[in-house]
Amino acid sequence: MENVKDYYPVKGRVILHVDMNAFYCSVHAAERPDLYAGKPTAVAGSSEKRKGVIVTCSYEARKLGISTGMVVNQGLRKCPDLIVISPDFHLYRKYSKAFMKIAYEYTPELEATSIDECYLDITGSKQFGTPIQIAEEIQRRINEELGIPCSIGIAPNKLLAKMGSDMKKPNGITVLRLRDVEKILWSKPCGELFGIGHKTAEKLRKLNIMTIGQLAKADEQMLKDYFGVLGTWMKQAANGISHSPVLADREPNKSIGHTTTLPEDISNESDINRVLLNISDQVGRRLRRQGMMAGGIQITIRTPDMKTITRSHALQVPTDYDKDIYKEAVNLFYRQFGAGKPIRLLGITLQNLIPKSESVVQLDLFDYQEQPKKESLIKVMDTLRDKFGENAVVTAGMLGDDPSTLIRNYKSRGTSLQKDNLSLPE
Question: Does the annotation mark 117 as catalytic?
Fold first, then answer.
């Protein structure tokens, strides 16, 4: 067994990155192994039209040339036996909560970064064993209790843990220490460094910086002149240096938020509005479930070069209504960022939360008679979703633009990951 000091330096940290493998497909295989286990499968937004984009695919499908972002028709040409599955985000959230509950048993320092991955700071978890023992136990339990595979990276910081979890899939565990960076990472192309996208890698190539090692040795001032503060970050990252902490959600009632990383950059105004509408629906529902009202709204925008922008606005009147959240989020976005620029990630966070029982709702002079009807409608919609799942009720704005597709598509409701099923509201 390796020396525990290799993992627990005197003043250092030990971080795990737990990443579910082909999560959506794995969930379907766990639910219906008779239909999907061991077969080439793909989850896509508009499988009926065969024009939807593949969101994820099983490893069996990947061996046959299927990849994320491929149009369904193209995938079927490559693999006629490909099984295309409509998404079930209620089911995915159920499995997401379950695997994070397992991970949380080993440390309260858990940061969920998406529905299928999280960081764990296990520096104070020595009672459960060495980092490898902890990672093996988490991986084993997720596999045995939920029936889905995961890969885990073990490192002294989040950056290297994330890089490590990507190295052995599916069901791999990788240790990546600072002393391993030169040997393992420096020969790889810059585009394989987490946080560097295709366009940034192309700009680096024009500077004759092809590998992570060349980036690690590049002149920092030159990088700053060309990329701004991103240049400093890139040089540090190439050397395996990252000081980003694991941000555990200790006080969930202070804010409620959701972000989504898009499968491809978007810049079209209608696409942006569709994503914001869907996120507004998700955070609004969580807000009402907790019996809270929001006094402020913050949006998060991430551009392809990994620049993150946040803007917030205090509301004159607290709200728990999706339409109000959406309206404020859209106003914030276009006032602060504008349309036409590519976006990689969008998020909405509801802030300054107060219990609904303690808030005073200001009724509009012209629609105060409609307020009870609106409250009643929202309550009925939430009750239906509680009983029958998130897909039981959706608004027209979350489906296709053609009204004739509403009934046909409502069962395969998308989230902001699926552009085909998102639409601008009235």
Answer: yes
